Amino acid sequence: MKLAERLAAARGEALPPTPPTAAGAAPSTETPVGPDLLPETESATVTAAGFPSGADDARTLNSLLLSTPLQEGPAEPAPRVQAGKFDALAGLKHRVKQELLDRIGSRQSDSSLTDVQLKDFATKELTRIVAEEQVPMSSEERIRLIRSVSDDVLGYGPLQELLDDESVTEIMVNGPDQIFVEQKGKVTLSEATFATEQDLRHVIEKIVTQVGRRIDESSPLVDARLPDGSRVNAVIPPLAVKGSSLTIRKFAKDPLTVEDLIRFGSVSPQMADLLRACVEAHLNILVAGGTGTGKTTMLNVMSSFIPHGERIVTIEDAVELQLQQEHVVQLESRPANIEGRGEITIRDLLKNSLRMRPDRIVVGECRGGEALDMLQAMNTGHDGSLSTIHANSPRDTISRLETLVMMAGMDLPQRAIREQIASAIHVVVQLSRLRDGTRRVTHITEIQGMEGETVTLQDAFLFDWDAGVDPRTGRFRGTTRSTGVRPRFVDKFEDYGIKLHPSVFDPGRH
Questions:
Q1: Residue 492's pLDDT is what?
Q2: Which residues does the UniProt record annotate as the domain Bacterial type II secretion system protein E (predicted)?
Q3: What are phi and psi of 472, to 5 degrees?
Q4: How does residue 268 score in pLDDT terms, banded at 50, 70 and 90?
Q5: Percent of the chain having pLDDT more than 70?
Q6: Which of the 8 DSSP states describes residue 362?
Q7: How far is CA 426 from CA 240, 281, 375, 399, in A?
Q8: At residue 285, does pLDDT exceed 60?
Q9: What is the Cα Rg of the chain in Å?
C-alpha cells in the first residue's frame, strides 16, 4: 500500500482518483501535503540527536499530538482513530512510542546504565524509528514528535517542557485539561494539557514511586519530590472531585544566594548583614509566611550562613533544602505502609536528632506537635536552630506556635507555653508575597520576653507600606527599613566576635 493510502486509511478517508499522467511522462515523486497535515513552517536545524538547535519551545505540543502513558508488558492496542486534523499524527505517535519501548526493553530497569546513557540510547533509536516510518512531515512536526515521545517515555509527559523551562517556578495541574504555571510571580493558564485522566495518573504514579511512596484510593494524597528536589503534592479521586490534582514547586538547580535576594529586592544589604550575624551567633530563628512566600528559599539562604565544620541535621517531610556545607545529615519522614505500620514522623526524627550530636538542627517546617519538641531542644542547649512556620505576622507566629504545641497532646498551661516560646525563639523573619507578585521580608522581629501574660515583640526592620504603589508599573514603592531600634540580641554578637556596623540600624539607610 502506498504511503498516501496508508495515511488515508488511518483517517478513514477514501483516496481521490489519481489523475492520469501524460503519455510518456514520468510519474511525479513529489509528496502532496494535504489539509490534514500541518503546512511547512519556518525550518529548524535538527541535530544528530534529533532535537532542534535553537528552536523555540513547542508550547502547542499537546494540541498537535495525543499523549499516551508509558506501559509495561504487552503493547496496548492502537487508539481508536477519530475524525480530526491530527489523527494520522496521533496514530504515528502511538506506533513510534510502542516501537521505542520494544527497543529499550529491559534497559529501563538496568541499574548499570545512567540516566544520560539511557536517554542517549533512546534518542538515537527514536530518531531511527521516525525515519523508518517515512511519513511526510515538516521538520517542525518531526521535532515535536521526537520531543513528545521522549518526554512520555523518559520524562513526565506534557509537564516535562514546563519543568525544563527555568522561568516556571510552580506548576499546578487541576485535572487533565487545565495546567496553570507561575512565572515571575504571576499565575497563568498554560497551553499544555494531558490527553486523559489516565495519562495524568500515570505521571503522578511515576513521580511518587521514584521516592518509594504510593498513591491509590486507600491513600489518595501524597507528598513527594522530583530528583532535582522540586516539591510535589498529589491528590487523586475520590478526594479530587474533578480529576487528579498535582502541584509542583520547582527549585533552582543552583540554590539562590543572599546576593540574589538583594538583587531581587527581597532583602536589603543591611538586613542581610543582620541575618548573617544572627545565624553566626547561634540565635534561634523562625521564618514565617504564607504559602508561596519563599520560606524554604529563605531558610536555605540563611542555612548557608552556618559556618563550615559545624554538624547540621536537617529534618523534613520531603527533602528540599540544598545545603552546601560538608557536614550535613538529611533526615526525611516516612508515611505508614498499606498495613498502617512503619510511619516515622517529624517528631520521631526530631527526638532522634538530639542523640546525633548536632551543632544545628534545621526543621523544614513546623506544623504539628513537633513544635513542642523543637522548643525543648532550643531550650536545652541546641542554639542556632532554624525552622519555618505558616503565619501572616510575627504576632500571629506566636499564636500559631501555641496552637502547634497544644497539638503535641501535653496538657500545658498557656503561660508555660508562652514562656517556652519567649525563651526559645530569638528572631522571627516574616515574609509576604505582595499583590504585584514580588516576595519581600516585611519584618525582622525580636522576641524580647514576657510582660505579664503577653510575649513582647520589637520590630528591628519593617516594610514601609505607606509608600504606596507606582501607577506606571503596579509595583510597591516601599522597602523594608530599620526602625532605628537596636535589638537586645545584638549583645550576644560580641560573645562570638561578631562586629555589626551601627549603620545597619540607621533608618535613613535602605
A1: 92
A2: 156-434
A3: -75, -40
A4: very high
A5: 79
A6: E
A7: 41, 11, 11, 16
A8: yes
A9: 29
492: number of CA atoms within 13 Å, CB side? 16
Give the DSSP letter string of 64-78: HS-------SSPPPP
CATH numeric code, 162-249: 3.30.450.370
Q: Which residues pair with 186 in a beta bridge?
A: 183
Residue 208 grid cell: 511518587
Q: How many whole angstroms separate alpha carbon 231 and alpha carbon 240?
A: 19
Integer Cα distance of 404 and 398 in angstroms: 10
Instruction: State the span(s) of the chain assigned CATH 3.30.450.370.
Output: 162-249
Task: Answer whether 169's CB lies under 8 Å from 183's CB.
Answer: yes
The amino acid that residue 319 corresponds to is V
Residue 123 has pLDDT above 70, yes or no: yes
Q: How many CB atoms lie within 10 A of CB 45?
A: 11
216-263: pLDDT as tens digits: 888 899 988 888 888 899 999 999 999 999 999 987 778 889 999 999
Other Cβ atoms less than 10 A from the Cβ of 38: the count is 16
d(CA 381, CA 153): 51
Coil, helix or strand at residue 268: coil
Residue type, 103: R
The type of residue at 479 is: T
> What is the spatial distance between Cα 49 and Cα 5, in angstroms, rounded to a whole number?
30
Q: Mapped to the 3 state alphabet, what secondary structure does 378-424 carry?
A: HCCCCCCCEEEEECCCHHHHHHHHHHHHHCCCCCCCHHHHHHHHHHH
Residue 333, CB-side half-sphere exposure with 13 Å CA sphere = 23
Which residues of the chain form CATH 3.40.50.300?
258-505
89 vs 191, which has greater pLDDT? 191
- Which residue in 15, 12, 11 sits closest to 2, CA to CA? 15
- In the chain the first and final C-alpha atoms are separated, in Å, by 76
Cβ(331)–Cβ(317) below 8 Å: no
How many other CB atoms are found less than 10 A from the CB of residue 363?
Answer: 27
User: In the CATH hierarchy, which fold is given to the domain comprising 258-505?
Assistant: Rossmann fold (3.40.50)
Q: How many CB atoms lie within 10 A of CB 451?
A: 9
User: Can you give the three-state secondary structure of 180-198, one letter per residue?
Assistant: EEEECCEEEECCCCCCCHH
